[in-house]
Amino acid sequence: MSKPTLPELDSSLYPQVWEQQVVNDPQALLIAMLKGRITPDPQAFTKQILANDVYQDWINFTVFGRYIQRSFAAFYQQSEDSFNMDIPALFRHELMRHAQYLPLDQILFVAGNISKNARREKLLTTTLNPATAVMSARTSNQSANKLALTGSQEVIVNQIRVKGRQVLGFAIRHNKRTSERTRNEVLILDFNDLRLVDEQSVSDNKVSNEEVGNTAKLQKVESTVLLRCYELR
Questions:
Q1: Fewer beta carbons under 10 A from the terminal one: N or C of the chain?
Q2: pLDDT of 73-97, one tens digit each?
Q3: Residue partners of 76: CB distance under 8 A and separation at least 6
């Protein structure tokens, strides 16, 4: 039985108006957030996307929520529990029964470095919420810096564009009463290729504008975002 394709989401979400600025697509919104022209507000984006009928179709197609995603990830990462060695495959098979193909040119985001295992396992947790990706990347970076006792402030955000018709996944339903509601995640369960097509450094314009007035202070907080753009087939 062939899998259905999820309806186009981005075309129903954009263009949008944020802080008196018009953004025509997810990439434009992400860039504006990274450059400091628009404040990354995960809750504001979540409120908007939850009001979208197409997104409601995405999340209402499946009953799987964050608990299922966490449990699946835990099982799939085990390596020495021989008694349960078949569980990850069985779990994945059941999830695949509820997966759909993602529409072409759908844009997704991932914070931080993408695991090297993602290509081998054909498994990737992404988000539709660019603000969530930006804030998660910054939080992870700050935590890593504290552990390493370094002042480096480079943040990594990945943008993934669906370019193949065989990318399988589903939107994860989140509890509206918890902070997880701002995740707006999509679990990718199968694909043919994840390819890096562009990489660029993005600077915060607000930092640059204030640098002349307070150079010494800004050197401690100035951040460079490394934006990696992928194609998923």
A1: N
A2: 655 666 555 555 566 677 777 788 8
A3: 88, 91, 92, 121, 123
The model scores a pTM over 0.70: yes
Ramachandran area for residue 7 (φ above 0: left; ψ -120 to 50: alpha; else beta): beta
- CA neighbor of 205 nearest in space, from 45, 23, 30, 38: 38
Give the Cα separation of 186 and 49 in Å (integer): 13
Joined together, the tokens standing for residue 28 give 């434009």
* Residue 140 or residue 40, greater confidence: 40
- Whole-angstrom CA distances from 66 to 12, 72, 102, 137, 229 are 25, 10, 19, 20, 26
Phi, psi of 203 (to 5 degrees): -100, 150
Tokens of 176: 């509206």
**Hunting for tokens 């998923």 — which residue is that?**
232
